Amino acid sequence: MKAFRQVTSRAVVLDRPDVDTDQIIPKQFLKRIERSGFGEFLFFDWRKDPAFELNVQEGRILIAGRNFGCGSSREHAPWALEDYGFEAIVAPSFGDIFRQNSLKIGLLPVALPEEQVRELMERARAGEELTVDLEARTAGGFPFELDDFTRECLLEGLDEIALTLRDEPAISAYERAHALV
Amino acid sequence: MGRTLFEKVWEDHVVTGGEGRPDLLYIDLHLVHEVTSPQAFEGLRGAGRVVRRPERTVATMDHNVPTGDDTPVDPLSRQQLETLARNCEEFGVTLHATGSGREGIVHVIGPELGLTRPGITIVCGDSHTSTHGAFGALAFGIGTSEVEHVLATQTLQQRKPKTMRIVFDGERAPGVTAKDLVLAAIGTIGVDGGVGHVVEYAGPAIEALSMEGRMTICNMSIEAGARAGMIAPDETTFAYLRERGVEIDERWRGLPSDADAAFDREVVIDVGAIRPQVTWGTNPGMVVPIDGVVPEPADEAAERALAYMALEPGTRIQDIQVDRVFIGSCTNSRIEDLRAAASVVRGKQVHPTVRAMVVPGSARVKAQAETEGLDEVFAAAGFEWRRAGCSMCLGMNPDVLAPGERCASTSNRNFEGRQGAGGRTHLVSPEVAAATALAGHFTVPA
Lengths: 181, 446
Description:
The structure holds two protein chains of two kinds. By secondary structure, chain A is of the alpha/beta class. In chain A, 35% of the residues lie in helices and 15% in strands. Chain A has helices at 21-24, 53-56, 76-84, 96-104, 114-125, 148-156, 160-165, 168-177; strands at residues 6-9, 11-14, 61-64, 88-91, 108-111, 130-133, 138-139, 142-143. In chain A, helix 4 links the parallel strand 4 (88-91) and strand 5 (108-111). The mean pLDDT of chain A is 97. Chain B is α/β, with parallel strands linked by helices. Chain B has helices spanning 5-12, 38-47, 75-91, 106-112, 144-153, 178-189, 204-207, 211-219, 235-243, 300-309, 335-345, 363-371, 374-381, 430-439, and strands at 14-18, 21-26, 29-32, 57-60, 94-96, 121-124, 138-141, 155-158, 162-169, 197-202, 228-230, 265-270, 277-279, 287-289, 324-327, 355-358, 384-385, 406-409, 424-427. In chain B, helix 6 (178-189) links the parallel strand 9 (162-169) and strand 10 (197-202). The interface between A and B is large, with 49 and 65 residues.
């Protein structure tokens, strides 16, 4: 996994609630068997509108409305956002699977209270560069929550499977104890 | 204090954890399909890893398969299907391939083959994995990185979600289905009402449902944002399992939530007040009773939804004309769904301006329906009777809406473009879909 420490950048404001993963990456692009190259298809249908937020703003941070990434479990959604150039996404809340998928690839989902997200949207619209700092666990100066373990994995870019395989004796013991072998 | 059904299943599957780390959860059954697995198998190959428990991993082909008798597979879909077949062979995973007679939508075949059981953990690279919670299993969708993690370790690192109970109080009015109950619940708590929670559905109206109705409910848990949905196993569950050759484990009787178990959140829904539901917007929470009207937009999102759906506030739902009707998907493509729809259309004709199709959820559902003559009922009424697959639920195969087409659909998502770019989806029950196909506009069965 790609490591994440901090990003300082202009932010793209996508002030819409409940943005689903079907919008982030439409189904016709899920037929590819590679992990890369999804960025050009990000928000494929919405980007046909010249006024769409991504067509008129630039930045490596995305600030979005509540429940961002709801719907389908497609990891292609975080792949597309990451490939497009986003490193962190700030929103009041995220779809659970999307949040999990993003953490697995080093795309940092930052959940902040709605009024703080609103303030960051205003500051971003005014042209301010924002910093999302994982070591300090702050976004635009606001502290956010992320458990120590997940933070450590992201900072180091750890391979989670290798980490779990260290628990191989415990997994085998569980299987024996539950007659699963 | 007592424990909830979810807590019992979770705690029984913790391999290790604590000290600030997430729990390492053992996964009993891993379902795999062609769309979310190729990169996971590729990851294993690259790292020189194997599938830890191939006998606990079961694959099928569903999202990409054409459902027409002679429809060719497009080259990209073919590549994805062939990649799955190759990966299953290389890694020793059982594959129920197209034409095997056991294939179908992954969430339809799991229960059908007796794989889905109470008290087990089930994951799949698909958000509708929540379906299997109808049996009292803990079942949830994961992304491709986690698919790879489960393939390699048969476990997942997970933080324990919160618990919510939705109690369906009272009795269903005639014509009100499981689909209407779950749509009404999503309309009540919102599409993010369940985020971070595992929902247990309870109450007399849930207990009165068949297993297939319960699957419809749990299937749409994710549409309320929930991590998973669960229903306590009971005699209905055991009867369904026995019919599929599964021996009943007496320990399953201890799974239901204890009387003094506490939930982080409780919601009560008055079932008696629920009418058949129709969505009007671009997420499943934008829903009204069929005898209602398109609502005034409450915010910008609703305005955008109305513009996309080309609807005016105040329009009676029953005055909305449809171009297409789709009966199928992991939400509503089981034999009871098809029987219910067939009973509505028997001896009648699909409206001349409507194109209607029925897509059974699996090869077995299709065979059963044909044994009962349902295929002929549908064909005589003017429906297309097709092969099993995800079909028009998500348009990864040739079954799609044309831009601007309006569809009454028994599937689970009315997101923009879900059934085809520019397509307009209204979610309904199989009964309403069938009646709507005959009338050409939304209506309940006569």
